Amino acid sequence: MQKLNFDKISTEIIDLLNQNKSYEAFKIIVDTYNQRLYWHIRRIVLNHDDANDVVQNTYLKIWKALSKFKGNSKVFTWIYRIATNEAITFLNKKKPLVSIETVYIREPTTNYQSDFLSGDAIKLILENAISQLPPKQRVVFNLRYFEELKYKEISVITTTSVGALKSSYHIAVKKIEEYLKTN
After folding, report:
1. CA atoms of 78 and 140, how far apart (whole Å)
2. Which bin fits 4, alpha (ψ -120 to 50), beta or left (φ > 0)?
3. I need a labelling partner for 61 at 20 to 30 A (CA). Which of 3, 33, 75, 174 fits?
4. Domain finish residue from 96, 127, 161
5. What pLDDT, on a 0 to 100 scale, did the predictor assign at position 117?
6. Could you tell me if 11 and 19 are in contact, meaning their C-beta atoms sit under 8 angstroms apart?
7. What is the pLDDT of residue 24?
8. What percent of the chain has pLDDT over 70?
9. Tens digit of pLDDT for each residue in 96-118?
10. Do residues 27 and 81 share a domain?
11. Helix ranges restricted to H, 66-161
12. Are residues 115 and 149 in the same domain?
C-alpha cells in the first residue's frame, strides 16, 4: 500500500473546512481513504457485504461530524477511530457470530499433489487464525501488522494506552502462532 502524506492531506482538509467547503473536504476523504478504510474494516468484520455496510455507516458518521472536526488529530487517525468503532459496534450487534467453518469452507484448488501449501491456502489459514481473535485484538493486530502503524498512532485510533496495545498485539501474535501450529 502506498504511503500517503497524512499531514498534507489533513492540512488541506482543515483548510477546506475553515472555508466552509465541507463537501470538497469530504470528497478528498473519500477519494484518499476509501480503499484503505474498506480493507481496514474488512479485516475486522471479515465479510465483503458487511464491510460495505460498515463503510457506508462510517462515511455517514464522518459526514455528520465533519463540521466539528478541528484538526486536533490527523484526519487519518480520526476517520480510522470512527471506522474501528463502527466495525466493533457492528460485530457486537451481530452476535452470535456464524461459526468459522461456515465462513471459510473452501478448499485450496491445485492441479497437483504437493507437500507445500499454495499462497491462497496460506492466506486462508492466516485469515482463519485472525478471525479467531476477539474484535479488539483483531483491530490491534490488523493496524500493526497490515497497516504498519506505530503503537502511538494505534493508541490515538483506539484510545488505548501504548502499553496495553503492545500487550494485546503480543497476545494476538501468540494466539495466531498457536493456531498456525495446530492447523
Report:
1. 16
2. beta
3. 3
4. 96
5. 61
6. no
7. 96
8. 84
9. 544 444 344 344 444 444 455 66
10. yes
11. 75-94, 100-103, 119-131, 135-145, 151-158
12. yes
The DSSP call for residue 115 is S
Residues 114 and 173 in one domain: yes
Structure-block grid coordinates of residue 128:
482463519
Name the packing angle between helices 119-131 and 135-145 (round to 10°): 140
Q: pTM for the full model?
A: 0.77
- As given in the structure block, the three cell numbers for residue 134 are 476477539
> Is residue 139 within 8 Å of residue 153, measured between CB atoms?
no
Residue 29 in grid coordinates: 476523504
Check if the beta carbon of residue 9 is closer than 8 Å to that of residue 32.
yes
Residue numbers of the domain that contains 50? 1-96
Residues 59 and 142 in one domain: no
Residue 128 and residue 100 in contact, taking contact as beta carbons nearer than 8 Å? yes
Question: Residue 135's domain is classified under what CATH number?
Answer: 1.10.10.10
Q: Of 96, 115, 130, which residue is a domain's last?
A: 96
How many residues belong to the chain?
183
Are residues 106 and 34 part of one domain? no
- At position 54, the amino acid (one-letter code) is V
Task: Name the residue type at position 159.
Answer: T
Percentage helix, strand, coil for the chain under 3-state DSSP, each rounded to 5: 75, 0, 25
